[in-house]
Design a protein that fits this description.
The protein is mainly alpha-helical. 84% of the residues lie in helices and 0% in strands. Helix 3 runs antiparallel to helix 5, helix 5 packs antiparallel against helix 11 and helix 6 packs across helix 7. The longest helix has 31 residues.
Length: 255
């Protein structure tokens, strides 16, 4: 298992796409912090990169890598190795590689310019989102052998989490504007890891005051130690559940 993880990590870190991804994140991060006198503004600008670009690259690259490694996976399956170990090794290696790229591209600039609780929260959320969308990508890949269709599914999933989900929530809020939905929104936010990550970071930036009564409700729930713990447990479940389902599917899949 360790050999497979090591091979996957070294293979991905030498990949030109991952190197370009790391360099782009590094360039964007240093540029944002250099242009802004206030580090809080730099962090706020970097928030969109973490919530949009990082999940997009994680889910698409994860899917492409698994599809391109089909022959390697078939070779591993033909060896006296458990399928569960093979799949979890691929997941660990893929996640670790993209997390390393994220930590170099965004983690280092944040530590250098904005070493604070907010900065640490931003790095932690970025790491969790990277792993979450790798796990979702690996689950999506098992739905079809067709590479084009599989990548299309991952793009649709990203569009749903990044854009469509917020639109649906706003539609519900407008339709039921006469009802107190603030507390219900807390439960709905758990259905989208990107939204949950956004709330956690914005609360640490203390911008929740600009969100009115809804922001106050979010702060009461997510601002406490128990609320933070629950939020991170939900994000970890977003990793574990897709990995668990994809592992079960891989064990039964006819390669």
């Amino acid at each position: 298992m360790k050999k497979i993880i090591k091979y996957v990590v070294t293979d991905i870190l030498r990949n030109k796409i991952v190197l370009a991804y790391t360099c782009c994140l590094l360039l964007i991060s240093f540029s944002l912090f250099s242009l802004e006198d206030n580090t809080a503004k730099g962090l706020l600008s970097l928030l969109n990169v973490i919530l949009i670009i990082v999940p997009l690259i994680s889910i698409i690259f994860g899917a492409i890598y698994i599809y391109n490694s089909a022959e390697f996976i078939e070779l591993l399956v033909s060896q006296p190795l458990q399928r569960t170990s093979i799949w979890l090794s691929l997941f660990t290696g893929l996640s670790a590689s993209l997390v390393i790229a994220f930590l170099i591209g965004i983690g280092l600039p944040v530590l250098f310019y904005a070493f604070s609780v907010t900065g640490m929260m931003m790095i932690l959320v970025g790491v969790l989102l990277t792993v979450i969308f790798v796990s979702i990508a690996m689950l999506a890949v098992l739905q079809t052998r067709d590479k084009a269709k599989g990548i299309g599914i991952t793009i649709l999933l990203w569009l749903y989490f990044a854009l469509l989900f917020d639109g649906l929530v706003l539609f519900l809020l407008f339709q039921f504007a006469d009802y107190p939905l603030e507390k219900i929104m807390i439960g709905i936010s758990a259905l989208n890891p990107i939204d949950l990550g956004r709330i956690l970071i914005l609360l640490k930036m203390d911008i929740s005051a600009l969100m009115g009564y809804t922001g106050a409700v979010f702060k009461d729930v997510f601002g406490t130690a128990a609320g933070l713990l629950l939020s991170f447990l939900v994000l970890i479940l977003w990793i574990l559940i897709p990995v668990w389902i994809s592992t079960l599917k891989f064990k039964k899949k006819d390669l």
